[in-house]
Amino acid sequence: MTSFRFLHAADIHLDSPLKGLSGQEGAAVERIRSATRIAFEQLVGFAIEEEVAFVVIAGDLYDGDWRDYNTGLFFVRHMGRLNAAGIPVYLLYGNHDAANQITKQLDLPANVHVFDGRKPQTFVLEGMDVALHGQSFRQRDITDNLALAYPSPVANAFNIGVLHTALGSRGEHENYAPCTPDDLVNTGYDYWALGHVHQADVVHEHPHIIFPGNLQGRHIRETGPKGACLITVEDGQVSNFETIPFDVVRWAVLPVDLTDAATLGTAIDSIRDGIDEAVGNLADDRLLVCRIVLKGCTELHEQLTASAEQVLADARAAALGLGDEVAWVEKIAITTESMVDSATQAAREDAIGELQRMLQDAGNDEELLKQLQGDIGELTSRLPSDARTDTEDEILKAAIKGDYAALIDDVVPYLTSRLTAREG
Length: 424
Prior knowledge:
Blueprint: E1 4-9, H1 28-33, H2 35-50, E2 54-58, H3 70-84, E3 89-92, H4 95-98, E4 112-114, E5 121-125, E6 130-134, E7 158-164, H5 181-185, E8 191-195, E9 201-204, E10 208-211, E11 227-234, E12 237-245, E13 249-257, H6 264-283, E14 287-295, H7 301-306, H8 308-320, E15 327-334, H9 342-346, H10 351-362, H11 366-381, H12 385-390, H13 394-401, H14 404-423
Helix pairs in contact: 2-3, 6-8, 10-14, 13-14
């Protein structure tokens, strides 16, 4: 049996917009907009340079419906590059691809082989003793265990199963094409090229069951290096596998402890130092997009809360000061704690104490809760679907869920901080 290498990629989501980058200006803008394309170009260039035997794409090449044909034409152009280099591509459509009707109408180069969506299909690479088995999604919400219908392995060949699955609802992903690792192991295949889960994961070795993760992180929940797996096969066995990073923009959550910070100026200095350190340790010469999480019990808590927009602007200025395409602050999360507890605030014999006591009891005020339901409930019902499902703001989450008692609990610290800061 011959030795060879192949690339296993998934969840490319071509032209999917990166989230949380509103307000970005300067030379980094175009790089951010085209991040998924550049990452894919780099994957194709790597495949050609390294002369891999073939490329497997295990679903979600696209991100749903295209605005126009340019996304598909971009893909075809780069498949043409692989075709010229004699590198075949084995493409499986996942839940996002299944929603795209234009996908089915696009003529692909002869080197691109698409797995059927009606039943499992096998492609045999003559002269290499390799067989690839897979089934594309025929619709978005596949709830059947597709793996159970995959065919028996081809004798005297290296058998690869290609599947788009959550493998038991991993992480935040919908449990499409549900199955278990044992289901895959029991097929007798030598390698399982999975897609759908955006965090890289080696589920099993011998046989290898691998999620490569997505090619480019798209928001703050997709942190760290992103890329594809380079698999080396020798004598019918996986002898080596490694993740090759292809991402253009890298996401990171950076905690900054402000326990000892005495002024807003020293707080910004700490943020700048945190970004600078993260660029050196995490960015790997990519644009680093960070969420700064301020923590610690500090006398600045009220001031930070009251001046959140100014703190964000100062943090972004600190990031831009490191260079034009070095770092960007996506958000500031203020999780610091006040040095004065709520009980002490409520015991004050002044307007702030009275307001604190009133706010603490507000969650039990049925008349107030009913009024909030009428006013806020109507507003949240008008929000776009994406805003309702993708928000990370705890206050907005509570409002959308109609949990107005929790909403009040969430806004009390904010209101108290604003009033206390003004008092100072």
